[in-house]
Description:
Layout: E1 8-11, E2 18-26, H1 30-38, E3 48-53, E4 59-68, E5 79-86, H2 88-100, E6 104-105, H3 110-117, H4 123-134, H5 138-148, H6 151-175, H7 188-215, E7 217-223, H8 229-237, E8 255-261, E9 264-270, H9 280-295, E10 298-304, E11 323-328, E12 338-340, E13 346-349, H10 358-368, H11 383-406, H12 409-427, H13 433-441
Parallel strand pairs: 1-6, 7-9, 7-10, 10-11, 11-13
Antiparallel strand pairs: 1-2, 2-5, 3-4, 4-5, 8-9, 12-13
Helix pairs in contact: 4-5, 6-7, 6-12, 7-11, 11-12
Amino acid sequence: MSKSTDTIAAIATPPGNGGVGIIRVSGEIVSDIAKQIVNRSLPPRQAVFCSFLGLDNAIIDSGIAIFFPAPNSYTGEDILELQGHGGSVILDMLLRRVLELGARMASPGEFTERAFLNNKMDLAQAEAVADLIQSSTEQSVRSALKSMQGLFSERINDLLEELTELRIYIEAAIDFVDEEIDFLTDGSVENRIRNVLETIQNIRQTAKQGRLLRDGMNVVLAGKPNAGKSSLLNALTGYEAAIVTELEGTTRDVLRERIQIDGMPLHIIDTAGLRESNHTIEREGIKRAHEEISKADRVLLVIDAQHPESHSIQKLLPSDIQVTKIYNKIDLLGIEPEIIESDQVTQIYLSIKQHKGLDLLTSHLKKCMGFYSDTEDVFIARRRHIEAIDRASLAVESALHQLTFKQAGELVAEDLRQAQNALSEITGQFTPDDLLGKIFSSFCIGK
């Protein structure tokens, strides 16, 4: 992606009327624009109260002007911020004046894109800017700040440095293959590769938690008709989001609700009851249920505790899906709420109707999102980050295999290079232009 040298401008505050509105300008002719709008030279990084002038020196508004000279600015270019009154008409008039003086309208995310291209931040930090703005919980705000401040990038860069040193060592060993000591079989290379793999897996676990904080955990309610899925949705949301009747098959489509549990975002998805059906609409609902299940972070398999044999429906679920079994209607059996955890599956016994045991479920969901782990070092992450980490992990696993079973140094070095490329996509050191364009186009205008 090539750098642009023209000057861009945009309204940096949300649409509508407010107490304050901000116009942001960045580029080569910022100084000239500033002199014509405020009719004076502006000292660096000082707030100056002045009038904003239009054509023929007519006053458009009055407010504060701040000049940030390059390279010590957000974009690395000269930046001018005009902070005036937040009326939409006033801001539009002021923006038109800036455009008349030679600037052009900024594209979504173009200010942050320029910051990335001018090495003011890497790609992970740039994405964290958008994630910070869009954060809906306090924990996601804190995690986005950590990414923006470079925590995620620092861990990736440390890993890249270790991979670089490993490649240098291995390629040197290949060059001195005739020496008496075989550096590839002395155990040190294998140990270092295993340490790299362990580090990647630890980063992935933290990144996965950060992705859940950013996007929310997709929790799909599945089970046979009349097991209590819709009742559970209503209990978790706190209102009648779904229709509940005694008739089987009431839910025919997918219902989605977003909730928070102690600041942790969850997407609760109610689905049609899983069974054989000849009804065209219900069959479509069941098909959609399976589609949602395949994409879930966790499935709550709701089971009528009076008929526990219905748990056999789990055989219809994908084997790699995380499942929690919810045994509902325990009030009809006269038993108390209980949670049974094992390495295989968690079982929760509760009564949705009497709201007994729901606290066990919410605690379990928080635990699934990593709520009880140390969140101090959790950085915000996106799905593309996790996919890149997964590709790096597979490449390092392949390198370990090549070293252990084939002792092929050239192939080991190539696998480590592939791992480097995958991780470099996260920080933007090695990223296709089309991906960069897609990332920055998702930002708001003026950022």
